[in-house]
């Protein structure tokens, strides 16, 4: 057993073979960009919304998945796939359009599930009912971007919602066989080690099924880039980030699926830190740190009296 519950192992447990996620760009937008909440977006997000840009190149959802299947089968010998609707807010569109997008993805041979990236303020009963229908025969994850449990931080990064909104979304999603993943960012402006631990503890208390841990890196075309240029924001060093990841993992329940330990910046967009591009080295360093410190996912959870609800 490793020192954290990784997604690759979890998916192998579910399907008995190598399963890979394929990022899908559905051409959707975000209420934090279209003027509903704001036009600037979160301070770290540019106009691509962390996506591949495939929709802008007129590549259909089906074709994106077929291309992903070919590449991942060749590279990893993957046999099954999860369609990951990644860029922007993937429950933020008319219901009929969402259903058509999800149906198109699930019609692709070998796609055994969906992972829907969205905001906690962009979910409703009708969409959750649809996802629950899919979940009767497919694996369905909904990924809520939280980033921090600190409301002051959420306001500082122009997130457009508070922690209570995230709690409400989680409560609305429960009991439908839909798995819930939360996104958390380490290195947010104004945050320290205590804030990181508090976010992990908050997710632990909610009994979240999965977590994605991200490094806050600076990309072109963002408010954060301007802050960085003026000396108002300094990204974490590699050792600082590793230290916070270890701290975060210790407070999570041991059965929470760790879907990600760091991010994947686009090389041509990244401003800083340069080490963020060294994914394999970073993951190896995190695993080594867990070994060297003799810590593991759930170490503090087991001894801290948290209750999974």
Could you please describe the fold and organization of this structure?
- The longest helix has 16 residues, at 61-76.
- Helix 7 links the parallel strand 5 and strand 6.
- The protein has 309 residues and is of the alpha/beta class.
- It starts with 6 loop residues before the first helix and ends in a 5-residue tail after the last helix.
- The relative contact order is 0.13.
- The chain has helices at residues 7-15, 61-76, 95-106, 125-135, 151-156, 163-173, 193-206, 223-229, 238-251, 279-293, 299-304, and strands at residues 19-24, 80-85, 111-118, 139-147, 179-186, 210-215, 218-219, 257-260, 270-272.
- The strands form 2 sheets. The protein has a 7-stranded parallel sheet with strand order 1-2-3-4-5-6-8, sandwiched between helices. The chain has a two-stranded antiparallel sheet with strand order 7-9.
- It is globular, with a radius of gyration of 18 Å.
- Residues 304-309 have low confidence and may be disordered.
- The chain contains 11 helices and 9 strands.
- Helix 9 (238-251) packs across helix 10.
